[in-house]
Design brief:
Elements (H helix, E strand, L loop, with lengths): L1 H22 L5 E4 L2 E2 L2 H6 L2 E3 L2 E4 L7 E8 L7 E7 L1
Antiparallel strand pairs: 1-4, 2-3, 4-5, 5-6
Length: 85
């Protein structure tokens, strides 16, 4: 009886710890890479579908998308930033 109560208490503690981790910004991300039209558009930074990342903790569900921006230098240099969707 005590072991089942102890297991339930540990499970509840892990659940609360994961909730507070997301609250303080420590997410567990699942990354989905960007999709490009072809190889040439990939070199130019033209994205068909942007890269996304979602928090894989069930209660959080935060979604972010990646913005790819070319600075236009020679050779081209890209800046990648994440924003909330």
């Amino acid at each position: 009886m005590q072991q089942t109560i102890l297991k339930a208490a540990k499970r509840k503690l892990r659940h609360l710890a994961s909730k507070t981790a997301c609250f303080f910004g420590h997410h567990r991300w699942r990354y989905t890479p960007a999709e490009f039209y072809d190889e040439h558009s990939q070199r130019l930074g033209i994205v068909m579908k942007p890269a996304t990342r979602t928090c894989c903790r069930g209660h959080c569900g935060k979604l972010q998308k990646e913005d790819l921006h070319c600075l236009g230098l020679n050779p081209p240099e890209y800046v990648r930033t994440w924003y909330n969707a």
